[in-house]
Amino acid sequence: MQGDSRAVSARVIRDGDAWAADRSSPLALPLLILLALMSAGLVVYAAGNWALGAGFGAALLAGAALLGWYRRLYPQEVAVGEAVPDWTVARAAADASNMAIAVTDRAGRLVCASDLFGEWFPGFPTPPHVTGDSSLSDSLGNAARAAWRDGEARVEGIVQGALRLDAFLCRTGRSEDYLLWRFSPVRQPSALDDVHRLLTGEAGRQLGEAGIMAVMIGGEGRIRAANGAFLLRAAGRIDANITGRDFAAHMRVDDKARLFLAREESGGIPLRLLQVPLKRAAQPAGAQSGAQDGPMLLLLIDEPAGNAGGTSALSYIETLLSLLPFGLAMADRDGRVLFMNKAFSRAAGVKPEEKPSYPGDLVVREDQAAVADAVRRFAVGPQMSGDVAVRMRNQPDEPIALSLAGVRGLGEAAVLLSLKDNSEESKLKRQVAQATKMQAIGQLAGGVAHDFNNILTAIIGHCDLMLMRHTPGDSDYDDIQQIKSNSNRAAGLTRQLLAFSRQQTLRPQILQLPDIVADVSNLLKRLLGESVKLEVSHGRNLGAVRADPGQLEQVIVNLAVNARDAMPDGGTLNIQTYGVPAAKVREMRSDILPPADYTAVRVSDTGLGIPPDILSKIFEPFFTTKELGKGTGLGLSTVYGIVKQSGGFIFAESELGRGASFVIYLPVYQGADVDQAAQPKAPVRRSETWGTGTVLLVEDEDMVRAVAERALSRQGYKVLTANDGEQGLEVLAGDEKIDLLISDVVMPNMDGPSMVARARASHPDLPVLFMSGYAEEQLRKSIDIANVAFLPKPFSVSQLAEAARDALAMRPAAE
């Protein structure tokens, strides 16, 4: 402990003699003589005797001199304010911890510091200026001011060379006039925790069942963790607590240098010991580790009589390593691979029938030299462990850590290699990234489609109005028809975007998949052509599903067209429907498909197949492998959106040269009306759309409101308009009787549902027709209003007239 003597040498003489408090004062002697003369004068004045006065003054001077001489020989000093701190006790406490400690006073002086503080910060600098980093000094200075004010403060993430420290500051002392600085190293993740969990968990139990004792000891030779097999044989009970005990105390060695358990005495079986060095977290300079050697994992294996050779031991070790859940392999001194367990093969992407000759065969060419050099160093050098960052051939874009440890006494085996299997973790990361990207694109596509639907509604409506003034043969008739035709094509494109973003309007019904396949088969035969053969097969006792039949037909058509394009020279397209019970789903062990009863449809072809790098992108919008101008890239993304919006799942399987298969799983419908097979009820449409009455049209888009107003006026309705919900309520509160309310859903200020909810309070029987570019299903989930009709955008003049007529027909019979 380094101390500043000046900080503890400020002393004062005990109260009682003010004149001796400061012997160095130049006025002390003159003041003393003046005091003696004044005292002698007073005596002369009072007694009238000059001899008596002179004697009194001389006696006073002599007494003061004697008192000063006595104080000089026997000084009586005490510290100002409090007793002097015992820095020896503080030194012992500081050195017993793994922290660098310093103490400063209110003047900012370093009072004391531990030895470890001087090692981490050479020269014993005074906090907060412990390094040359000005920003760090500012942070520590602010923390010091906060500690003086609030009593404590903290600064994290201090980088000092290879160290990463956290600083804790607190005000201390009897008068709280000291500031205590504690710098502690940040604990780094270590393999010790993983091994501890391994030994005390399920893996440790399985090792014990295999007859393998496993124990982890620290560098000081004390037990940190052990599996049940070791506890049972070394301590006699599987629940024994031997943590912290000396490992050597449980072992004994006979005169032939064979290793036994001490508890088993002469009847024990010799044991073979495998030592696996464990890499510890980086120790800070000067930290007390307790021993030179680091912690290690010890594996104790019964050695059969007469088989003490290295070959026999190696076979047992291989059996052991094959049971462990993490990837392990062994290599000899020349770097050749001797063994690798299944977890290592999976992590390295090695097929079961393959076996690499060298560890460098598993990595990319640029990393082979580094791996070969590391293997040689660990094979011939002292027993140690370390990591090498490598890129595997099967995953060249994701660097991973290859751990190596030198082992001895295992015959040919000289290096133990460990590789973590990141395949599932990487797969999950890719799935999350893909789902996030698809969701973002879906939200964008839905918003674009909604806004575009408003524009298409105006274009199609004005085309219909112009066609009413022209007859076939007019010069402008064909041009208007062409505009309307292209607008309808654009409307189909927006429907695909809405299907991909799962915002399309669906009309779900209870149906059987074989019926849908049968309805679309004739169309498929014309689409596929003569070179592609269509085969259809159906399973028995299939459960009913709830979906939109028209959208399911579009799904099958899109998949069939893609399959036809993948078979340019002809082939076979197979469509199969079958049931998948919940028990079979559990056997599949899928992370995506939840256990339930499903009805599946498989669409497979014998075409060229899909490359693995493309297979993960096929459901992305606008992704296509077709030539420019021959595909929009929305076919499979539309299929994906329809299936997901219907509550189902779709999976793609393919192998180059052997075709591709798309499997759709739709959950079996379990509703009370499941026996009522869906017979699509065709709406009764009357050819006459002429009507009477007053219609209130509420629409914030001027172009849509204008075309809808003209279309309804041509059908005989009196139309009142409003720009938003608030204006609509004002019109509704007027004297005019409103027979029908037509409103957009999403509007500024007050949206359509809010307006209708307030309107129904005063007009409970008012028919309402909502129109929107969003999906009806999504809107009905958010609109808690009964007896409302819905018209999706874009719509034509005739569709608007029919929807208005049907909405008016919902009025009660009393009216």
Automatic annotation (TrEMBL):
E.C. no: 2.7.13.3
Keyword flag Ribosomal protein: no
4-aspartylphosphate sites (modified residues): 744
Keyword tags: Kinase, Membrane, Phosphoprotein, Transferase, Transmembrane, Transmembrane helix
All residue ranges annotated as the Response regulatory domain in the record: 694-808
Enzyme class: transferase
Segments forming domain Histidine kinase: 447-670
Start and end residues of each PAS domain: 313-382
SMART domains per record: HATPase_c, HisKA, PAS, REC
Transmembrane segments: 27-45, 50-70
InterPro entries in UniProt: CheY-like_superfamily (IPR011006), HATPase_C_sf (IPR036890), HATPase_dom (IPR003594), His_kinase_dom (IPR005467), HisK_dim/P_dom (IPR003661), HisK_dim/P_sf (IPR036097), PAS (IPR000014), PAS-like_dom_sf (IPR035965)
The reaction(s) this protein catalyses: ATP + protein L-histidine = ADP + protein N-phospho-L-histidine
An example molecular function term from Gene Ontology annotations: kinase activity
Designated name of the protein: histidine kinase
